[in-house]
Amino acid sequence: MLEELLIHKPDDPIQYMIDHLKKNNDDAPRICVLGPPASGKTTVAMWLCKHLDAIRISQETLLFKEILALTKEAKAYKERKQKIPNALWANLIQERLSNVDCIKQGWILEGFPENQEQAWMLQSSGIIPRHVVVLYAPDTVLIERNSGKRLDPFTEEVYHTTFDWPSDPLVQQRLVKPEDLSEQEMSKKLLEYHRNFPGVFQLYQKVLKSVNADQPSVDVLSQVLTYVQTRQRSAAPFTPRILFCGPPGSGKSLQAALIAQKYSVVNICCGQLLKEAVADKTKLGELVKPYIDNGYPVPDNLVMKILAERLNALDCMTNGWVLYGFPRDIEQGEQLQKSHIIPNRVFFFNLPYESIMERLSQRRIDPVTGERYHTTFRPAPTLEIQARLRQNPRDKEENIEKRVETYYRNVKELEDFYEDAFHVNADQDPHVVFEFIESCIIKPLPFKKKIKSL
Fold first, then answer.
1. pTM over 0.70
2. Would the pLDDT of 276 be above 50?
C-alpha cells in the first residue's frame, strides 16, 4: 500500500487507503450470525472472530464498547427503556463497518438484522453479507438454556450451569448471571423472532445456512466454519460486474443473455428496468412514467436511483451482473463511478453502419404473439404471419440514423473513460463473439491500455 501511495500521491491519503482496502479485501469475512435468544449466537460469533481474525459487532459492542457518533443517541433510547429504531441501528452498523479494521479484517455481525426492515436498510447501505448462519433449536430447549446462562465479564464468553460449565475455578468464581429474561418474557421474544424471521430468510436465502444449535458446541462450530469457508457464488472465477456498450443492433442484449445464462449473473437492461419500475408503480416509477409515456429521455438522476437500487440488491452483489443501455455518455459513466458502481469488465461492440441498418431496419414484430422476425435472417414462417407483421417506429431508417449518430458522438469520450475496455468485432457469428467475450472474462489480458480486437 505504501508503494501505491508513493506512486499515486492522492490528495486524501486516508480515503485512498480505505478505498484501496475495499478493493483488495475479497477474502475478508462478511458474516451474519442469527438465531433466537439463547441459541448460542455470541459463542459462535466470538469463536469465528478468533478463528478468522475478524471483528465482532453486536448490540453490546455498539452501545458500550464503541465511540461512534450515534452511540449517545442509541443509549438514550436504551436508558428510557424504549426500542431503538431500525434506522438508528442500521446507521450505527454502517458507521462501525466503515472503519478500517472491519474493511481489512472483515466482520461478524451478531444478531443483526433482526427483521426484514433492518435487512433492507443494511442492504441499501451496501452492507451485504457473504454468509448468513442461522442457529435454531426447539423453544423448550432455548427457554431452559436461558435460565442457566452465565457470563464471564472479563472475556464476555457465555457459559451454562448444565451444558457448558468452565473447568477453570477462577473463571467459575467470576461468572455472573446476566440480566436475562423471565420465562414469560423469553416466550414473547421467541414469538417475536418467529414472526420476523421469515422476512429475513426471504432476503438472504441464497447465502443462508441453518445450523441445529441443539447439539454439542464442537459440532455446531464445525458446521458453521465449514459453511463460512465456502465461496460458491457463480460459475465465473470472480464476481462479474460486466458492462456492454455499443451502437443499436450490435447484439448487446443477446450476448448479455448468453453470459447471464452460463454464469448465473443478473441480466440488466437499463431501458427494461425503467419500464419495470413504471409497471410496478414504485415511487420512482411514478416519476419516470411521464417521460416514457411522452417519449422523452428519463433524467439521469432518476435513472441512477433506479439502477443503483437494482445493482445493490443482494442477487447482484452475490452473483454479479451484466449491464447494457447505460451509460451512454461520459457524464453518465462518471455518475456510475460516484455511486461506487464500478464494472470490472467493459466491452465496446464495434459494428459497421451498413450492418447496423441491415439488422435494425428489417426487424419486424408479430403484434399477436410478440415474436420478433427479420425479413432476411429470420423471415416469418407463414404468409399469414408475414401479412400481420409490423415495424417498430424506432427501426425506421431515419430514427436509426439519429440513434447511431448520438452513440458515435459520445462513444469516444466513454472509451477514454473506460481505458482498459475490450473492443469486440460484433459483425460476425454471435457464438464467435460470445467466445471472445468469455475469454476476456475468464482470462483477462495481462496488459492494460491496449486495444484487443477480434
1. no
2. yes
